[in-house]
Design goal:
Number of strands: 8
Distance between the termini: 42 Å
Strand content: 15-25%
Order of helices and strands: HHEHEHEHEHEEHHEE
Strand order of the largest sheet: 3-2-1-4-5-6-7-8
Largest sheet: 8 strands, mixed
Bound molecules: zinc ion
Number of helices: 8
Shape: globular
Radius of gyration: 17 Å
C-alpha cells in the first residue's frame, strides 16, 4: 500500500478505491503509441490484472512513440515486450499476453474483463471492439491520434453513445500516418485516467462528450455527442443489452 499512498491521499480515493483497482481486470488492445502509456499508468496505479493483446512485432519506426518498446526489443512481440516492462514496474500486477490479432473468431474469448482500452490504429478492429463491448455491456475507452491531433471518448453501454453513433463511417484506412510521440502519450494517459475513474466510480467519465486535442495550438475542445436511435450497433432494435435475440 506504500506504493499507492500518494493516490490514496486523494479525497474519496482511499483504501476502498485502491482495492477496487486491485480486483479489476483491464484489457488493452494494441500495444502501440496509445497502449504503451495507458498500460504503463494502469500498472503503476495497481490495476490487479492487465491483458495485453497485440500480434505485431516491434519495428524501429515504432520507437518514437511506443515507449514501452526499447531499442533492444526491435523484432520482438509487442505484447511480450510491454509485459516485461509492466511486470518490472509493478510485480504485483498480473500481466497476461495474447499474441493474436483480434477478429470475429476470437473477440468473445479475449475481451472478457471489466474495461477495455482501445489502443488500435484501424477502425475495422475498433468497430469490432465497439460491437462486442456494447453487446456484452463492457465499458471501453476509445482514443485515436494522427499528427498533432487526438480524440477521446468513453463508451459505457446503455449510458451514452457508442463509437458507431459518433463515427458512423470509418475514415479511409491509412496503412501509414504521421504521429508525433507526445500526442498518443497525452491521449494514452487520459485513457488510463478514464479507466481508473470507471473502475473506482470516482469523477465523471467522458460519456457523451468527444474530447478533441490539438497539440500545435495546444487546445482541448469538447463536443457533445448523442446516441443515434438508428445506430446499427446500439440503436433501437439493434445489438445492445436490450435485444438478446441478436446474440
Ligand atoms: Zn451506437
Amino acid at each position: 500500500m506504500e506504493r499507492y499512498s500518494r493516490q490514496m491521499m486523494i479525497p474519496g480515493f482511499g483504501k476502498r478505491a485502491q482495492e477496487k483497482l486491485g480486483k479489476a481486470h483491464v484489457i488493452v488492445v494494441g500495444l502501440g503509441g496509445l497502449g504503451c502509456p495507458s498500460s504503463l499508468y494502469l500498472a503503476a496505479a495497481g490495476v490487479g490484472r492487465i491483458t495485453l493483446v497485440d500480434a505485431e512485432r516491434v519495428e524501429e519506426s515504432n520507437l518514437n512513440r511506443q515507449v514501452l518498446h526499447w531499442t533492444r526489443d526491435v523484432g520482438r512481440s509487442k505484447a511480450g515486450s510491454a509485459a516485461e516492462k509492466l511486470r518490472e514496474l509493478n510485480p504485483s500486477v498480473g500481466v497476461e499476453v495474447v499474441e493474436e490479432k483480434l477478429g470475429e473468431e476470437n473477440v468473445g474469448e479475449i475481451l472478457k474483463g471489466d474495461v477495455v482500452v482501445d489502443g488500435l490504429d484501424n477502425y475495422e478492429t475498433r468497430y469490432l471492439v465497439n460491437s462486442h463491448c456494447v453487446e456484452k455491456g463492457i465499458p471501453f475507452v476509445h482514443a485515436a491520434v494522427e499528427g498533432f491531433i487526438g480524440q477521446l471518448l468513453t463508451v459505457v453501454p446503455g449510458k451514452g453513445p457508442c463509437l458507431r453513433c459518433v463515427i458512423p463511417e470509418p475514415p479511409p484506412p491509412k496503412p501509414l500516418f504521421p504521429v508525433l510521440g507526445p500526442v498518443p502519450g497525452v491521449m494514452g494517459c487520459l485513457q488510463a485516467l478514464e479507466v481508473i475513474k470507471l473502475l473506482t466510480g470516482l469523477g465523471k467519465p467522458l460519456v457523451g462528450r468527444l474530447l478533441l486535442f490539438e497539440g500545435k495550438g495546444m487546445t482541448f475542445e469538447e463536443v457533445e455527442v448523442k446516441r443515434n436511435p438508428n445506430c446499427p450497433v446500439c440503436g433501437e432494435g439493434h445489438g445492445g443489452r436490450r435485444s438478446p435475440q441478436k446474440r
